[in-house]
Amino acid sequence: MHEQKATNIYWHDGAITRSDRERLNGHRGFTIWFTGLSGSGKSTLAVAMEKALYERGYHTYILVGTMSAMVLTKTWAFLLKTVWRIYEESVRAQISSATAVSST
Questions:
Q1: What pTM was computed for the model?
Q2: Is the separation of the CB atoms in 103 and 31 below 8 Å?
């Protein structure tokens, strides 16, 4: 089977670069990701870390796996998809010069 590819889709660069965002925010974007066993306190640490970074002037965004799983999939059967979605959101946060605090 031959896969048909679109010929009318093009990448369009935005006017604001990642460097522009970093200069405006005063810091580069990065991700802090807590991993561990269920019930080990990852989400609690992530919430505390987000608050501490925010108080120091970082633009933060929290991504907690259990909350994302409940919102995005409603079941633990899609945990791998949830982890992948958190990864993708973390990358987006970094590109926007925000700090992503994640736990899964």
A1: 0.66
A2: no
